[in-house]
C-alpha cells in the first residue's frame, strides 16, 4: 500500500503566505499509476505531493486520481475531480487521458496544469475547444524549432552538413533545420541518409571529410552519434557533431566524443533550487523524471489559487496573464496555454556530462 508523504517544516517561505488563501481549496493531482506508466506517474505524483507538503497544504485538500494513461481513465479521473470539489488540477502525461478529461473539467471550470503532454493539438485547437489547459512541457515541435533557431545562429560561418537515419524523427529534425538555414541564406555542403545501427560509420565520416564539412547535424540516436565521433577521431578528422535530445538516452558501448553538441532539455534537477532537492532527499524520493515537473506544476496551481483569491480575478485570468516562479524557473503561458519561451537549450558534452553553452 502506498503511504502518504509526511509533512515537514516549510523550507523557504512563510507557510502563512501559502496556507491562508488556499486552506479551504482542493487541488487535484492526476497521473497514471498502473501498468506500464506506473513509474512515470508515481514520479509526477510524488513531486506534486512534496510541493503540497512544502506549502503546508493538508492531505485532506488534495485529491488524487489514476488516469490509467487511457481515454476511459481520463474521463473517470475528471469525474472524480469534479465530484471532489477540485478547483485546479496538476497532472497528466498521456494525450488520450487528458483529451478525454478536458471537456468534463472545462464544463466544471477547472483549469489543468500539465507538466507532461507534448501533443501540439492540445493547445493548437484552443480557439475551437476553449479548454483551460496550460502546458509546462515543451510542444512536440519544440525540439525542431530550437535546433533550427540555435544552430542557424551558431553556424552562420561554418561549413555544415546534415545527415539522418531515415526515420521520421531524423528526417523531420534535419529538414526543419535545412529549411530554416535556407531562409537565412545558408546551404549545407553535404546531405545524406545513413544506415543506422552499424558497427562503424567510417564510410559516412570519410564522405563528410571529403566534402569539407567541419560541423554536422545528425538526425539519429545516441549510439550512431557516438560511433561517428569515434570514427572521426580515428581518422584524425576534427568534426563537430550535433544532435537532438536523443543524446539523453542511455549510453551504449561507445562513449560520446567530447565536444558533441546537443539541443535538448535541461535536467529538471539541474535548475531546481537546493531547498527543493533537499525536500526530496528528506523524504528519500528521487528527484528524477517527472518528479520536479510535478513539483513545479503543483507550485503553479497553488500560486494561481492564491492570486485569484487575493486579487478577485478568476483562475484562468491569473494563468493567462501572470508569471510564476517554480522549481524549474519562471513560467509564463501564451494565449494558447503553451510556454512563452522554448525550454530547449544548447549543451556541449565535456567527456562526462552535458554542460550548458551560454
Summarize the structure.
The chain has helices spanning 15-22, 38-54, 71-83, 95-107, 121-124, 126-129, 142-154, 168-183, 202-211, 222-234, 268-271, 274-282, 291-311, 315-321; strands at 27-31, 62-66, 88-91, 112-114, 133-135, 160-164, 190-193, 215-219, 240-243, 261-264, 323-326, 329-332, 345-349, 354-356.
Structural class: alpha/beta
Q: What profile does the largest beta sheet have?
A: 7 strands, mixed
Say how many strands there are. 14
Rg over CA atoms, rounded to whole Å, is 22 Å
Low-confidence stretches: 1-20
* SSE topology string: HEHEHEHEHHEHEHEHEHEEHHHHEEEE
Q: Report the CATH C-level class of the largest domain.
A: Alpha Beta
Q: In angstroms, what separates the terminal alpha carbons? A: 46 Å
Question: What fraction, in percent, of the residue positions are helical?
Answer: 40-55%
| Contiguous helical run count | 14
Mean pLDDT: 92
Task: Provide the CATH topology of the largest domain.
Answer: Rossmann fold
Key features of this structure:
elongated, 5-stranded parallel β-sheet, 2 domains, 358 residues, 14 strands, 16% strand, 7-stranded mixed β-sheet, Rossmann fold
Amino acid at each position: 500500500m502506498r503511504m502518504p508523504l509526511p509533512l515537514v517544516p516549510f523550507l523557504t517561505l512563510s507557510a502563512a503566505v501559502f496556507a491562508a488563501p488556499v486552506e479551504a481549496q482542493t487541488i487535484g493531482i492526476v497521473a497514471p499509476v498502473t501498468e506500464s506508466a506506473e513509474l512515470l506517474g508515481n514520479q509526477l505524483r510524488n513531486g506534486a505531493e512534496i510541493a503540497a507538503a512544502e506549502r503546508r497544504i493538508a492531505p485532506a485538500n488534495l485529491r488524487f486520481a489514476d488516469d490509467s494513461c487511457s481515454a476511459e481513465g481520463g474521463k473517470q479521473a475528471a469525474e472524480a475531480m469534479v465530484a471532489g470539489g477540485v478547483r485546479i488540477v496538476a497532472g497528466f502525461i498521456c494525450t488520450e487521458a487528458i483529451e478525454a478529461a478536458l471537456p468534463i473539467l472545462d464544463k466544471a471550470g477547472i483549469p489543468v496544469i500539465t507538466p507532461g503532454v507534448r501533443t501540439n493539438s492540445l493547445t493548437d485547437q484552443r480557439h475551437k475547444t476553449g479548454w483551460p489547459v496550460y502546458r509546462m512541457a515543451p510542444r512536440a515541435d519544440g525540439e525542431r524549432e530550437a535546433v533550427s533557431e540555435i544552430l542557424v545562429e551558431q553556424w552562420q560561418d561554418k561549413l555544415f552538413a546534415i545527415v539522418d537515419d531515415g526515420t521520421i524523427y531524423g528526417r523531420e529534425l534535419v529538414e526543419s533545420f535545412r529549411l530554416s538555414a535556407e531562409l537565412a541564406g545558408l546551404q549545407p555542403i553535404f546531405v545524406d541518409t545513413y544506415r543506422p545501427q552499424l558497427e562503424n560509420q567510417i564510410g559516412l565520416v570519410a564522405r563528410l571529410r571529403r566534402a569539407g564539412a567541419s560541423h554536422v547535424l545528425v538526425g539519429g540516436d545516441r549510439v550512431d552519434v557516438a560511433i561517428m565521433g569515434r570514427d572521426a577521431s580515428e581518422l584524425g578528422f576534427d568534426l563537430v557533431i550535433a544532435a537532438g535530445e536523443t543524446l539523453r538516452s542511455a549510453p551504449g558501448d561507445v562513449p560520446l566524443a567530447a565536444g558533441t553538441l546537443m539541443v535538448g532539455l535541461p535536467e529538471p534537477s539541474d535548475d531546481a533550487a537546493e531547498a527543493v532537492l533537499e525536500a526530496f532527499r528528506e523524504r528519500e524520493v528521487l528527484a528524477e523524471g517527472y518528479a520536479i515537473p510535478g513539483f513545479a506544476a503543483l507550485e503553479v496551481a497553488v500560486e494561481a489559487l492564491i492570486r485569484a483569491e487575493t486579487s478577485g480575478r478568476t483562475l484562468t485570468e491569473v494563468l493567462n496573464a501572470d508569471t510564476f516562479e517554480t522549481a524549474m524557473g519562471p513560467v509564463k503561458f501564451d494565449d494558447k496555454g503553451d510556454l512563452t519561451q522554448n525550454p530547449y537549450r544548447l549543451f556541449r558534452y565535456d567527456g562526462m556530462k552535458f554542460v550548458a553553452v551560454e
